[in-house]
């Protein structure tokens, strides 16, 4: 049994989603958003770090799956996104958790079947796959999709690119 924390980083809103997998069964645990507010970037990064740290302390995940940064048209936005991602990764590293990274296309492909799927399609599929009563918020759905991507694609990537810790492949930090 593994508990996976998926993270969709953002400098203002960071989505998180937790699932538990037991053989072929996937169980929804929790999902939500860390709203970093309107303060300066340093304060928002601190809120992201503290928020992820609190989630890790409350839910005790075994692994963390984080969506990679993709280049926006605005390089400044990409830099801020990367810094938010770094704050989330630091929280997981601080808790000595293995971290795996997936591109937005890999996440969408794993959940929707198309790497260029719209956010509404991801929300819809997350609701169906996890048997949720309603579609989660966009950022929470993306985080749950990242966790599901890790659950489903991890063993495939391990077979294609060599093994990390015996069964999962992605970028791994320890």
What can you see in these coordinates?
The protein has 174 residues and is α/β, with parallel strands linked by helices. Helices cover 47% and strands 21% of the residues. The chain is built from five helices and five strands. It has helices at residues 41-59, 75-94, 104-111, 119-129, 138-161, and strands spanning 2-8, 13-22, 25-35, 63-67, 99-102. It has a five-stranded mixed sheet. Helix 1 (41-59) packs parallel to helix 2 (75-94). The longest helix is centred in the C-terminal third of the chain and has 24 residues, at 138-161. The radius of gyration is 15 Å and the shape is globular.
Spatial order of strands in the largest sheet: 3-2-1-4-5
Order of helices and strands: EEEHEHEHHH
Low-confidence stretches: 161-174
Indicate the mean pLDDT: 87
> Could you give the count of β-strands?
5
Per DSSP, the total helix count is: 5
What characterizes the major β-sheet? 5 strands, mixed
**Helix and strand composition category:** alpha/beta
Strand content: 15-25%
The radius of gyration computed from the alpha-carbon positions, rounded to a whole number of angstroms, is 15 Å
Give the termini separation.
Answer: 21 Å
Estimate the helix proportion, in percent. Answer: 40-55%
Principal-axes shape call: globular
């Amino acid at each position: 049994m593994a508990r996976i924390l998926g993270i969709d980083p953002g400098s203002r809103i960071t989505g998180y989603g937790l699932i538990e997998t037991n053989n072929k069964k996937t169980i929804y645990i929790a999902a939500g958003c860390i709203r970093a507010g309107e303060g300066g970037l340093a304060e928002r990064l601190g809120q992201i770090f503290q928020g992820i740290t609190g989630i890790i302390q409350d839910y005790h995940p075994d692994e963390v799956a984080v969506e990679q940064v993709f280049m926006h048209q605005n390089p400044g936005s990409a830099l801020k996104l990367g810094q938010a991602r770094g704050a989330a990764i630091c929280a997981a590293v601080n808790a000595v958790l293995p971290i795996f990274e997936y591109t937005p296309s890999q996440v969408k492909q794993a959940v929707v079947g198309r790497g260029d799927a719209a956010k509404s399609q991801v929300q819809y599929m997350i609701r169906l796959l996890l048997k949720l009563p309603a579609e989660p918020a966009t950022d929470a759905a993306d985080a749950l999709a990242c966790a599901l991507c890790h659950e489903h694609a991890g063993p495939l990537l391990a077979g294609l690119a060599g093994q990390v810790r015996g069964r999962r492949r992605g970028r791994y930090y320890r």
